[in-house]
Every structure is written in C-alpha cells, then in structure tokens.
C-alpha cells in the first residue's frame, strides 16, 4: 500500500496556547501520534473500538509491495474457481462420478436433513459469495492457512479503510471497497429489495460491526438491516403462494429479498426460526448467502486439493496453472482418519523423520522438531470457529501433543480433524499508539493478511485486506 500525506479533518485539535496557571501545556503530538488518534477516534465514533491493551492502532496501513498487491488481486478469481470446483466435486461424488469417499468425508457428522436440503436442485450451483482466506507472509512467499465462508471483520476492515483513506493513504480496495463489494452481492438500490443481515447469538460479538455495515449500505441506497433471527416473520398469505419473509427493523417491518447468513450451520438447532428461513429459501421467497452447504465450510478441502487420487479432477476443473498455484500456496493437509490401512498402504506424502507413515498413532511420539504442524477441527463444530480448536504441535509438550492427537482420532465420526504443515510467518516491525505512555511505540510480530473477495455473477472484487500483527 502506498502512503499519502496526512489529511486534517479527522485529527483532534490540540492547542499550544497558554494554559491555566500552574499547569504546563502538553507537548505537541508527533505526526504519528495524530494519525493513530485519528484512526482510533474514527473507530470509536463507529462503535467498533474499545480502549484495550489487546488492540493497538498503527499510524499507517500495513505496507504491501506491488508484487504482493498483484498476488492478492490474482488470488480472488483463483479461489472462486476453487470454490466452484469443490462444490462440483462434492455433487459428483454423491452421484458416483467421483470417488464416494469425498462426500463421505465432507458429510461426516452432519445431520442427514441438512445434507438433503443442501443437495436440492434449486441450490445446485450456489456457492459462498464472500471469500476470505487467511494468508501468512513467510520467507518463502504467501501461505493460505484456511478459507472462511462466513467471515467476521467486514465492518472493522471497512471502517479502518475509511479512516486511513481520510488521512490520505491509498489502500487496497479504496475507502469504500468493503461496502461497495458487499452491496454488489445484492444488486443496486431499490431493485435489490430489502437485505437482512441475520446475526445469531453465537455471533453476538460481531453484531456491532454488522450494524455498521448495514448503516453504510443504507448510505449507498440499499435497504439493509442487521437483525436477530427472532426478528424474522414468515407468511404464505400472498396470492402467488410464494412464502414471504419479513424482518422487524427500527424503520418498521420489511419484506426481505436477500438474507446474508451470519451464523454457523453447526448452530442451526439454536437459531430461532431457522426452519422458516430455510423453507422460504427452498420455495424461492428469499435468496440466502452463504448457502446452506456444509461441505463448502470444511478445512479438509485443502486435503482434497492435495490428494493424489483427485489430481486429474482439479487439473481439469482449475486448469494446470491455477491448480499448481493453489497447491503451492495451500499447505499440505491430511484428514486425520483413525481407520486402519492395509499393510502395504501408507498415508500419501506424510513422513516422520524421512520414513513413511501408515498409522496416525506413529506421530504421537514425534519430537518437538518433528511436530512442525497444526491440528484443528475441519468444521461443523464450535471448536472450528475462530481458533478455538487449533493446536500448534511444536508449541506444546509431547505428552499434551499425544493427548490432542488421540482426541482428534476419537472425534473422527462426529468432527473430523485435519493435520496441516506449519509455515512460519515473517517478522515485521510496526509502530502503534501506546495509550499508557501517550506516544508511539514499536513492536515486532508475525502478520496475518485477510483479503475479502466479493462475488457478483462471475466478477470477483477485492474489497480490502485486514492485516493483524
């Protein structure tokens, strides 16, 4: 990202004029300090920032080279192709045109009723319209650790983009890229109808930022509201007999045309009126994104990309260049399957100290150096949300590692785990505003870059990138 000159309108004013007797004037703030406070105040005004030592504000956006920006611009269409191919792989597996074990892995632990609903012909081509990979810059290049189809951070990224742009900085996606990209999912203005961003209790921590998103969408002319599932009402009294969904909003009740689903599928039993929302979508009364497709929200998709039995499928669907690129940036990943292999079989490409592995329990005695890996639930679990279930192998003692591996093996029937190669991030030095000292300070850390891609038709737009150090 390029950095332009600081702009003044958002900067708090500090006077260097005479102070009351007995008081010394505060030293003037540095330019870095003014910029940090300007961003912090903008987030506070949006209701998206609480003073806390856990959050530190940088005076400038995270810097990216021209080549890195090109990487992210090219990545979106490639991930969109991957999403469509993954959906096709699953459906063809169900029909018997691809290996049956593909859909068996992806269906593991899912309610049959949800799977039957998700496989309906009406939803056949539906895939998530927002794609957010988590990307780690390493010494060897960029590494994608996972994809999120129901990502948080849309509001905070949009607000940060606007705040830095007001200071004259040039950002990936621009000042309004996040909001324009999100709005593009639903059409424009009155033609789009009412958009309900439905946020569950499980996702309550994100309600404030999704309220902010809805408000900005209304500024763009879209009738958008952030609502709780209990604010929805259903009726079939229309002459066309197509069910209608209504949302109770601060401006009255609205007939809903589009729903942005900001809740996890594992939590459906705890979502009020979820069955009514699903029924309305099934009958064509409302569109829902992300779609109710649990196979699109599994981390084990990375393992399928690397599976040697599926190479031809991926190369045909993605093209050899995109396939090769994704295999390079997506770490090798394996499904932690406890079932015994035949004596002559091994787990493809998995080695321990240079020797082939045929049983996951062989890894229980791995040394710290050999445990350069990540163990995590694939999906459809409260443990798969955020980083709750993530175990970094070399960060814990050997006994704890063995216990976590056993836990993952035991959970296979309900919540499959994945085993992923660990890639160490590069160190970056960043400046931030130290509230206690009242001055800028520096810190070192590793970065996670989370680009947000919005898909309208077959057009993929990079709305912005959230950098967390």
Characterize the structure shown.
There is one protein chain. The protein has helices at residues 31-45, 66-95, 100-107, 112-118, 154-166, 177-183, 207-219, 274-282, 301-306, 311-318, 320-329, 398-410; strands spanning 130-138, 141-148, 194-199, 223-227, 232-235, 244-249, 252-262, 287-289, 333-335, 351-352, 355-356, 373-377, 391-392, 417-421, 427-434, 439-446, 448-456, 459-468. α5 crosses α7 and α10 packs across α11 (320-329). It contains twelve helices and 18 strands. Among the domains are: 184-289, Rossmann fold; 332-421. The chain has 469 residues and is an alpha+beta fold. The strands form five sheets. Strands 3, 4, 5, 6, 7 and 8 form a six-stranded mixed sheet that branches.
Largest sheet, in brief, is: 6 strands, mixed
Q: In whole angstroms, how far apart are the ends?
A: 16 Å
Kindly state the percentage of residues in helix: 25-40%
Query: Can you tell me the CATH topology of the domain at 184-289?
Result: Rossmann fold
Q: What is the CATH level 1 assignment of the domain at 184-289?
A: Alpha Beta
Number of helices in the DSSP assignment: 12
Helices and strands, in N-to-C order?
A: HHHHEEHHEHEEEEHEHHHEEEEEHEEEEE
Overall morphology: globular
Please report which band the strand proportion falls in: under 5%, 5-15%, 15-25%, 25-35%, 35-45% or over 45%.
15-25%
**In the CATH hierarchy, what is the architecture of the domain at 184-289 at level 2?**
3-Layer(aba) Sandwich
Content-based structural category = alpha+beta
Q: Radius of gyration in whole Å, from Cα?
A: 24 Å
Low-pLDDT stretches are: 1-25
The average pLDDT score comes to 90
Number of strands: 18
């Amino acid at each position: 990202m390029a950095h332009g000159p600081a702009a003044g309108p958002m900067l708090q004013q500090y006077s260097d004029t005479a102070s009351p007797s007995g008081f010394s004037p505060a030293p003037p703030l540095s330019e870095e300090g003014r910029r940090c406070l300007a961003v912090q105040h903008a987030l506070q005004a949006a209701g998206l920032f609480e003073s806390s030592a856990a959050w530190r504000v940088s005076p400038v956006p995270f810097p990216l080279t021209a080549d890195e920006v090109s990487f992210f611009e090219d990545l979106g269409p490639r991930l969109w192709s991957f999403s469509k191919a993954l959906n096709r792989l699953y459906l063809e597996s169900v029909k018997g045109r691809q290996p049956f074990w593909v859909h068996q892995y992806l269906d593991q632990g899912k309610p049959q009723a949800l799977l039957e609903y998700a496989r309906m012909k009406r939803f056949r081509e539906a895939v998530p319209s927002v794609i957010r990979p988590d990307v780690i810059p390493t010494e060897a290049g960029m590494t994608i650790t996972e994809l999120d189809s129901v990502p948080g951070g849309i509001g905070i990224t949009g607000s940060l983009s606007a705040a830095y742009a007001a200071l004259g900085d040039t950002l990936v996606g621009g000042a309004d890229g996040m909001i324009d990209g999100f709005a593009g999912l639903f059409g424009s203005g009155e033609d789009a109808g009412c958009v309900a961003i439905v946020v569950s209790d499980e996702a309550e921590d994100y309600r404030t930022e999704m309220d902010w998103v809805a408000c900005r969408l209304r500024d763009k002319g879209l009738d958008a509201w952030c609502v709780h599932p209990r604010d929805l009402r259903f009726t079939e009294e229309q002459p066309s007999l197509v069910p209608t969904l209504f949302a109770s909003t601060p401006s009255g009740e609205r007939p809903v045309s589009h729903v942005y689903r900001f809740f996890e599928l594992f939590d459906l039993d705890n979502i009020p009126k979820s069955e009514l929302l699903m029924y309305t979508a099934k009958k064509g009364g409302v569109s829902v994104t992300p779609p109710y497709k649990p196979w699109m929200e599994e981390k084990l998709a990375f393992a399928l990309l690397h599976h040697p039995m599926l190479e031809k499928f991926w190369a045909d669907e993605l093209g050899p260049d995109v396939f090769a690129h994704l295999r390079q940036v997506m770490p090798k990943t394996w499904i932690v399957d406890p079932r015994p292999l035949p004596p002559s079989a091994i787990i493809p490409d998995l080695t321990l100290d240079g020797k082939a592995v045929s049983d996951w329990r062989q890894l229980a005695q791995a040394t710290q150096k050999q445990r350069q890996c990540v163990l995590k639930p694939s999906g459809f679990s409260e443990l798969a949300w955020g980083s709750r279930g993530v175990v970094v192998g070399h960060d814990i003692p050997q006994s704890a590692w063995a216990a976590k591996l056993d836990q993952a093996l035991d959970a296979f029937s309900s919540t499959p785990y994945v085993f992923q190669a660990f890639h160490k991030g590069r160190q970056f030095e960043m400046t931030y505003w130290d509230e206690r000292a009242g001055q800028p300070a520096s810190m070192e850390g590793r970065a996670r870059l989370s680009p947000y891609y919005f898909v309208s038709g077959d057009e993929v737009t990079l709305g912005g990138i959230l950098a967390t150090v």
